[in-house]
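HUMAN: Please help interpret these tokens:
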Amino acid sequence: MSIMLLALSIATVSASFIKPSSAQTRPGAGASNGGPGQKHESPFACDRLALTSEARKRHFDELGPALRARKKSIRELSDGFEFEFPFDRATFQLVTEWAAGEHLCCPFFDIDVRLEREGGALWLRLTGREGVKQFVRADFASWFQR
């Protein structure tokens, strides 16, 4: 229960300095590019302007390096990667805040945060459509270094 409340409070605080995405502010944005039943797919590019300058600095200069330092292992998946972190309150807060920002600047990711039972690990999963795995390997190159 306290973890859920913690996650909700982090999301509320994070949302206070995250700009609406361009898809939310452009007329007709987010609509299908093709015929009925086709979904809009954003390009494989980080939209740093989806975050305020304060949020950008925090996301890229503080949260990213902090998570890289805490990363325990990486699992390769067929459509992306999972990053393992130790479970503690501070790391959980960092991961969930980072995920909220990443969801805005890289909307092509499927992002999952998972806690293993019985005090197990914290996992951050980045997956998605064809090409996401290659994007993660290139854009997160420093996360793959020991």
User: Anything to note?
Assistant: Residues 63 and 98 are 6 Å apart (CA to CA). The first strand starts at residue 73 and ends at 77.
